[in-house]
Specification:
mainly alpha
Length: 74
């Protein structure tokens, strides 16, 4: 079985059985404002805390919008 990675999203890891599988592809879909960017950034922050290399690709947020969302995480 593949290793699981913590998402950094409170409560989500327990819902998905201990985190997301490493080397898997996940699609997060929803209408504007449902938290897709927030989940993605929390996942990247968790990975960065663990010393992992992280990359965020966004297609809809401007740099300013993304910076505002990211600043809410400190």
């Amino acid at each position: 079985m593949s290793e699981r990675l913590l998402t950094g999203v409170p409560g989500l890891d327990s819902i998905v059985g201990g985190g997301l599988f490493r080397d898997a592809l996940y699609l997060v879909k929803g209408t504007p404002g449902t938290g897709k960017t927030t989940i993605g950034l929390q996942f990247l922050i968790e990975g960065a805390k663990r010393g992992e290399k992280c990359l965020y690709l966004g297609l809809s947020e401007t740099r300013g919008q993304l910076a505002l969302i990211a600043s809410s995480f400190g």
